[in-house]
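Bumping my old thread because nobody answered last time. Still need a sequence for this structure:
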């Protein structure tokens, strides 16, 4: 289920080219009132020299433009980027020739042997989709994405957001618990896509012994984060959580980490 211009997979799109689409911050997700409008303010990442954990700093790349793309169309839509990082971009209807059929496994309700719970599929079996990727072109250039991060002494949380276009309504919902390598992962999935643009929030919180995963439509992390600087450091920081989540819930149904 993809459409981004840079990477082939929405799960790989958001967190700096790693296969991570992980979750969230301070949990201050905000409702996306207009799913066809991507708007907000771009911020940058700074890293604590002692812990290496990221924080946000104001956009320093100056005025320019924001570009939305889907696979097969590198410039689906554009909008002005203010010197302070603010923008508002309206996403158009996606041409049918740019839509792809999701892998059947993306909406499978079958669970692996190490998992319990249930998932319910709804909607059209022949739905097609595209996922938008976003980038900035200014004094600095590169990908941006809705993203939030936080860390405590006992846990780490990532949240990421996507803009997904479907030509027909489709959904997957349910709760699943999987155990692998002495790690328990709990997944809470509630993705109900309508025809047109939708927003999706994916979050993963990890502790020493457990991982909590949430996917839902209708919300996004509050910040648009510039991924051009510090991407490698962020990716390295997230690798441990990613490995555990992948190992514990690699077949939950919807493409969490494909």
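Sorry it took so long. Here it is:
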């Amino acid at each position: 289920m993809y459409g981004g211009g840079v990477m082939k997979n929405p799960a790989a799109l958001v967190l700096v080219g790693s296969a991570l689409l992980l979750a969230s911050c301070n949990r201050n997700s905000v409702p996306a009132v207009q799913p066809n409008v991507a708007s907000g303010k771009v911020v940058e990442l700074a890293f604590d020299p002692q812990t290496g954990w990221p924080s946000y700093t104001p956009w320093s790349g100056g005025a320019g433009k924001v570009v939305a793309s889907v696979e097969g169309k590198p410039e689906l839509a554009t909008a002005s980027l203010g010197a302070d990082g603010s923008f508002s971009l309206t996403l158009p209807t996606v041409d049918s020739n740019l839509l792809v059929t999701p892998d059947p496994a993306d909406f499978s309700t079958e669970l692996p042997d190490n998992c319990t719970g249930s998932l319910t599929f709804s909607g059209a079996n022949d739905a097609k989709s595209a996922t938008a990727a976003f980038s900035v072109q200014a004094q600095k250039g590169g990908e941006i994405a809705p993203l939030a991060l936080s860390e405590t002494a006992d846990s780490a949380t990532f949240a990421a957001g996507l803009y997904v276009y479907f030509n027909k309504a489709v959904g997957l919902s349910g709760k699943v618990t999987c155990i692998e390598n002495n790690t328990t992962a709990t997944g809470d999935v509630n993705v109900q896509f309508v025809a047109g643009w939708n927003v999706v929030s994916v979050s993963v919180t990890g502790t020493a012994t457990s991982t909590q995963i949430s996917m839902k439509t209708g919300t996004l992390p509050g910040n648009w984060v510039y991924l051009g600087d510090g991407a490698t450091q962020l990716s390295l920081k997230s690798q441990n959580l990613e490995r555990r989540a992948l190992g514990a819930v690699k077949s939950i149904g919807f493409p969490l980490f494909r």
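Helices lie at 10-13, 231-248. Let me know if any region looks off to you.
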